[in-house]
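MarR family transcriptional regulator
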Amino acid sequence: MLNRNPGHELSLRVVLFHQALADRLGINITDHKCLGILHEEGAIPAGRLAELTGLTTGAITAVIDRLERAGFVCREKDPKDRRRVIIQPNMEKAKNEIQPLMEPMIQEMSQLMSSFNQQELEAISRYIDKTIHILEQAASKLQKAKNTSRDK
C-alpha cells in the first residue's frame, strides 16, 4: 500500500475492537465507552459524565438508562445534593463480563510490549502521551466550535 497511514489504521482497529466488544456485551459503543470512563473515574455525577464525553445531558440520561437496564450501573442520590444523581458502576459485573473478553488481547499486547527494549518503550510512551494531548486539544476545539455555532 503506497499511502499507508498507520495512525489511521490503528484508530480504525481500536474503534472496531471496541465495537465488537460492545456487541458481545449487548450494548452500543457509546455506552461501552461511557462505561470505560466510569471504570476509570469511579462513581460520578451524571452531569460530570456528560462533561467528560461531550454528550448532552439528555443523551447521557439515555446512556445511563441503557447501562442500568444491562446491569452495568445504578443510579444513587447524591447525599450532599438530592437534585444530583451519582452513577455507580457495577465493577463486579464489568469484571465478570468484560475481563474474560479482553484477556486474550491483553496477553497479546503484553507479549508485544515485552519485545521492545526500555529505550523503545520510552519512545513509544512519549509518542502516545503526545498523541493523547493532541487529540484532547483537537476534541476540545471541535466541542467549543460546536457550542459556539449553537449559540448563534
